[in-house]
Amino acid sequence: MEPTNFARPMDGYLIEPMTTGPTAFWEGHHATNPCAIRLSSDSRVFLGYRAGGWDDRFQLDQTEVWGSHLGMAVLTSDGGRVDCRLPLPLMMIERDYHLPQTADQYEEFQAGPHATAISVLHDFRLWEDGPWLYCIYHEGPLDKCFDCIVRMRTTDFLLRIEQSCSLAEMQPEQIRDAWRSLWWAEGVWQPCGTSGTNRIYESEIDKNDIVFIRLADSSLKMIHRPIPDNYLIDTEDKPFCPSTEDGILKIGTVQQSIRPGRLDNSHIGNNGMPTRAQIGSREVFVDLVHGVENYRMSNRVEEAGWDLEYRTYLRILDYESGAQLYYSDQPIFESDTKWQDSCRNGVWVSANDHLRSVMFVGGQVPIDPKKTGLDDKWFAYVGTGDTAVGLAEFTLRELLPRQVIADIEDRVDLDGPPLAADENKQILGPVEGWEFSVQNHPRSRQIAIVRELAGSGEKTARVIELRPGYNDAYAMWIEEGAVQVDQQLGWVVKTKVKSSTKAAAADGLLLLDKENPERILYRSDHQELTVPSHVADEVLYLYRHQPMRRAGIQWLAQKAAAHKTI
User: Fold this and answer.
1) What is the predicted pLDDT for the residue at 129?
2) Which residue, 208, 288, 290, is CA-closest to 241?
């Protein structure tokens, strides 16, 4: 794959912590992890951000962490400058107790009356759907965080923003009562999660970095991240995770797995909401996401633990089907001195040895909302060093390889007869209580990994999406004897692929996780017939040290175990 250009960092910061002054108590330590949105009825960009002051610091057992609030800045119509930065947050916990500051205080706190209370907020996302503005966020007691969702009418939000900007010249303590009525009072944000609550999941599932997309046919899809991978769920038009008929939560199908041997070998996740755009005549979603490298895994350091660097990747989803058309091989920001300084020297990151840097893009908007084509300019809002918010600029043509653009523009409808003579189903075997198989898709030029829970009637197929720009852009299929078992690495699937209607068939290769064959740990880009040695080394390391990062696998096992008791 040819190299791409990079997004360009702009000078300075849009938002920095207010280390002194009247707002330092809630945004003096960090003002980062943006959640930017441009509403359909307003040309301005609204830049939410995760903000915390020194009073929000607390001890989580032996680790120093911070709670946060949802700060807000109103930007100009091009999204490049701050027009009004609000003096108080849109979401905030007003506490009548103190958070623990030492390990001993943490133990006392966990034994006290506030241990199970909602004690912290963080990681916000804003999403417009129909007449509603939704806020997706994490909340919970100190040792847990739950995915939550609330909403208000967009017209109501805009009215409250105007009232808030009129108060912005006054001191926070002077307007606190008025602000409480505007933003913090019960009923301002309406819970819209499962069973009338604000929870996206009924059970205690932690921190899944959730985004939603509504497709051309009006169907709603949820992309969530049971660590370490992204899964796709059809939510049946609900803004939360539905259950299957047996009452157990859906997990969906894997959309994108981590990639051993690359710079996203630890975990991946969603950032801001995907944004509609055009590549030629095809409508797509543009989405900037994060991938995280664990240096211990890259260097095979046998001491278990995490030494992490966050990077930003480009994802393109099809507006018609939701299919993932592209996921960049490499990060879209160059790791030059400018980015290193802003990402590695923040107060938060530099105080935590296991985080080498954090670059977290929380939303992307076209500078002109009516121009979303290949050569139109976009802004990306970048949380740097878990401390501040910077700005970057890009065009899709700069970030996408030429052949990817050409294949997306010329993409042939996948519906129709498959190239293989039959479905050629090959059984992988029982894993975590599920039966897995791989087979040619019966109605398209793709293959599918099928997962079935015996006796429950639940059956899910993960279709392996074709990749514009690669040698499997047009078709992929398997022939008899395609699956081989590697006792150490997993299932090795030899495929046949075509890059176009006229191209000759070539060889391809998939490596499926032995603990969850729905996960693709390696996918060949050319005609590799074996798993590269550096990839194999990291996969083996993954099996030895990844149990703490296998929530998706645990989810499947728990569902299978629960089904046996019904």
Assistant:
1) 98
2) 208
Task: Answer whether 134's CB lies under 8 Å from 149's CB.
Answer: yes
For 474-503, give the DSSP string: SEEE--TT-EEEETTTEEEEEEEEESSSSS
**Residue 401 amino acid letter:** P
Radius of gyration of the chain (CA): 24
- For residue 226, how many C-alpha atoms fall within 13 Å in the half-sphere facing its CB? 23
Q: Could you give the CA distance from residue 387 to residue 215 in angstroms, rounded to a whole number?
A: 34
pLDDT at residue 133 in the model? 98
Count of C-beta atoms within a 10 Å radius of residue 209: 22
Residue 481, judged by CB atoms within 10 A of its CB (0-12, 13-18, 19+), counts as: exposed
Q: Which of 459, 458, 470, 448 is closest to 518 using CA atoms? A: 448
**220 - beta bridge partners?**
214
Tell me if 270 sits within 8 A of 289, measured CB to CB: yes
Tokens standing for residue 228: 């370490």
Residues in the chain where the model's pLDDT stays below 70: 1-3, 416-423, 547-549, 566
pLDDT in tens, 95-142: 999 999 999 999 999 999 999 999 999 999 999 999 999 999 999 999
CA-closest candidate to residue 552, choices 153, 118, 232 = 232
**212 within 8 A of 222, measured Cβ to Cβ:** yes
The sign of the dihedral angle between the CA atoms of 63, 540, 520, 438 is negative
pLDDT of residue 484: 95
